[in-house]
Structures are given as C-alpha cells and as structure tokens.
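Appendix B, example 12.
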Amino acid sequence: MQRLEQLRAWLASILPGQAFNLAPASADASFRRYFRATFADGGPSRIVMDAPPEKEDIRPWLQVAALFRNAGAHVPDVLAQDLEHGFLLLSDLGATTYLSALQTAGGADLHDAAHLYADALGALAAIQHASRPGVLPEYDRALLLREMMLFPEWYIARHKNTTLSDAEAAQLRTVFDRILDVNLAEPRVFVHRDYHSRNLMRLAPGDGLGPNPGIIDFQDAVHGPITYDLVSLFKDAYIRWDEEFILDLLIRYWETAKKLGLPVRGEFADFHRDFEWMGVQRHLKVLGIFARLHHRDGKGGYLADMPLVMDYLRRACKRYRDLGPLLKLLDRLDPEDTQVGYTF
C-alpha cells in the first residue's frame, strides 16, 4: 500500500491539477506492476509502470525502447520517469493483446490472423534490420545454457519430483551441448526474447493509437539467434495454430528477409531446422520458468499452458535423431503424450 501511495504522489506531482483514477492494467511474470491512469477531464489514458528498484532495473527497458523506436517499431512513448523510485509514465497502447484479438475471433478467419501476424513480422524485421553487435547483451552460450538448466532444476526436480540417474543427467547435458551448438551457429540480430501474443497489442486504424502492433515487455532484449523471436511468435505458449499455417508464414518471412538483406540461411530447409532447434531451447526454458512461477512465486495459472509447450517440444524431438535421448526422458516424465490445445 505504501508503494502505491508513493506512485500516486509521484503522478500528482507531474500531473498537477489533473484528477485521475488508477486500475491494474496487466499481469506480469516479474515484479513489475502496470496501472492504467484515466482522467476526469476525458484526456487519453496513460500506463504507469511500477518497478521496485531493489527488484527491477528500468534502465534496460528505457534503452531497448529507444533502440526499437528508432528502428521504426511501435513501443510506448516515455512521458515521465523517476529512475530512483522505479516509476515510468507511458503512452497507452490499449487493452487488446494479440492473444485476446485472436481468441475473440475464435480463429475462424485465418485471413485476419495472417494479417495480424504479417504486421508482427514487419515490425520484427524492422528491429532485426537495425541490429548491430555491442549494443545489447550477447545471447551467449552461458545464458542459453542457464535458461535450459531451469528445466532439470524446476521442472524435473521440483515439479515432477524426479531425480535423474547419473546416466540420464550425462545424456541430458550432451543433448544440451548439441542444442547450443546449433543455436550458436545461427546468424545474430536484436532479439526481443518474448515476442508472443501477450506482448503484442492489436491496434486498429480507428483506435488512433498508431501502427500495429504495439510492442511491450522488451526489457530483456539481447543480441542473438535470428530465429528466436520467430519461435516465440509461432510456437506461442498461449495459442496454437496448425503447422501448415505457421509454415506458410515462416516461408513468407524468410523470403522477405532475404530481400531485405537480413542474415537468414540461403536454403529454407536449413533455416527451418534452426527454427526447430531454437524452439527446443526455448521450450525447455519455458517449462522450467512455468514450474518456478508456480512453486516459488505462487502463480499457478501458468500450469495450464505447460501441455502445449510440452507438445511443441515432443514434436521437435521426434523429428531429429540427435534429440532422441531427450524424447526418451520426456516419455519417462510424462508418459501420456496427450494432444492439447486448439487447432484453428
């Protein structure tokens, strides 16, 4: 409560004479909180970020916002900031996420969905085209491995209450090394790192909010493998699409990326293999994160999204012989290979 009062006092100091109401704007897996400020005079609403300095550093958010904005992507404008207390006043990109828009449509119109994803790919290509090394942290071997290690630590040991044998642990590390070899051989660009349906805002022309999509939650951006954000977008933990639909969009991206001079593979088969193996790394990480959010942070809602992530992981493991030991382990942990989610 004291933190919220500090936030209200700060807003009152930078918006003198303006009466406002605050309401929660979105849920977040981090310690950040977001509020929507609405005003008695009917002016445009604003978003307020509350990032406790002892738990969250807002400087990376500000850095990446500037990078992506200069690249031509639509991110929130920074209207006021208090770095000492961790407060930001931002433009409001609306309340309709891609996930909400796609679920509301029921997935019946693939044409509309394809348009939304085309907009998202256009924004992503702009970000990638602006990439240069030495600006953002490198998505290096140590970081990629640290993320994957969340899987044995939180999913296997904590969520499944399972102890690996020495042989299984050695096999898992061998598979991890192989995954990393493929990931790190990819061309490198700016990577949002969570470029999915909950972090893309659907902005319609009549909204007056600007070009679609609005992009949020980019503070963990790095310089890394070019397929990573495509995995986040198309192998989304929160919504499932038919593989044929995704493959079509992926081919369109690859063709456009080549024309733009982005560093994609010369052959689509090689590019698609990179995409699949990058997905394995991400899904191992996500399963570990979802388990940690549940067991450590009391955020059990993410458990409902685990089966879809596991299904993505299994499908990829079945396609590549080198991932066989991982598939065998998954069969021991989750013996029922249940088909989940919706195919639109």
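The domain at 98-333 is CATH 3.90.1200.10 (Aminoglycoside 3'-phosphotransferase; Chain: A, domain 2). The mean pLDDT is 93.
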